[in-house]
Amino acid sequence: MEKLFKLKENGTSVKTEIIAGLTTFMTMAYIIALNPNLLTGFGKDGGSGLWNGIFLATCIASAIGMFVMAFVANKPFAMAPGMGLNSFFAFVIAQIVSITHLSYIESFQAGLCIILIEGVIFVILSVLNIRDKIVNAIPLGVRLGIGPAIGLMLMNIGLGSNAGVYSSANGFSSPFFVMRDFFGSLTASFAKGNMAEGYPTMVLTVVTMFVGLFTIIILSHKGVKGSVILGMLVASIIYWAGQGIFFHTNPFESLTKASWVPPFKDMAENTLFKFNFENLSKIGWFTIITLVVTFCIIDMFDTIGTLVGTAAKANMLDKDGNMPQMKEALLADAVGTVAGACTGTSTVTTFVESASGVEAGGRTGLTALTTGILFFLCIFIAPIAAIIPAAATSSALIYVGIIMLSGLKKIDFDDITQTAPVFIMLLAMPVSGSIGHGIGLALITYTFIKMFTGKAKEVSVLTYVLSAIFLVKFFLAV
What we know:
It is built from 23 helices and four strands. It has about 475 residues and is mainly alpha-helical. Helix 6 (about 105-125) packs antiparallel against helix 17 (about 325-345), helix 8 (about 140-160) crosses helix 16 (about 285-315) and helix 8 (about 140-160) packs antiparallel against helix 22 (about 435-450).
């Protein structure tokens, strides 16, 4: 292990790395079931066969990406089908159905071609160091602000959208969320009336979330190793106990009815290497090119933002704000996307929840390897991952978000040309839900300010190009 991952050189140990990998897994295990739900309309589009195929693809492609991250890049970053990108992919599939009148499964298989093309492009760009050059073209001030911006995004996810409660009050059409519907209500009585029978569950969710958060903070302050995972465990126990004591339900009942046999047959029939370029061509080549470019831009800057932001928190950046082995990390991300296309899922990308493992002490590829193994094992033990309460993962996300805000101290607040792009990015990331779009707005702001303050020569040519690309993406409607 020492020779393979250089643990002593990175100031870590096997125990710390495994705990970090487990911590990362627990904060992102939700994607295992959520990804197939989003890509099949919670099972109504494509049937159970497609759902099962995407489920296995999620586990396998994520594991492959993390294994490459572990052995090639030796970095602690985890990967899985990206949130936002999977929702956009589902929207694209629906549009293919509308345009071609193909079945949902046929349209899904046509859409996988787009993901394959994107992945191959990224592999080529990574090998040729072009993606690495794009990273270096991001101004240092913006790069330093990516970590805190991701921190706010994590806090927004944890408090805003991670733990939702469904109720008959709105016909179970959409979830009620902690910040918007609980703390955002004028009074507790109003919240109770608005959520109806979902209110007690919301109260349990809020209590669980904050007890877990306070536990993590206290243990971390006392220097206890594994404080994040211990806090999540405490939060989970409270939630499970609350379900049994107050709602008289068995939190582990799903385990008794769960299927433990991997549905490999469904994967082989529906998603495994099921590329249909003939059907894809029916939407027109201009549309295909537009979609490929869109996926590339979003994924590229989401990945860059996550890598740079998380690496900054782990002190993995050099004095110029660059991360060693960035090329290898980007290559691992590209391989994950190709693996996702081949097995049958949307774009696999570096997950922002990797920050939880870094905060737990993860510094090498052993963290990524641990998380990857756990994802692969979920082929057989997915029902266990499914019982981790969302409120418990929120505790970890909020805590890690708070910690990542510390990167703001590196920003020169006396230089408005540096602070303006950063603070726009701080707001844009959590509000838009996109790391890439936040970076894009920061680059545009930085470029325009430099141009009109007599400092245009300080902006690199590639930064001008990236800013122009984002302007076209944001404003050109085709």
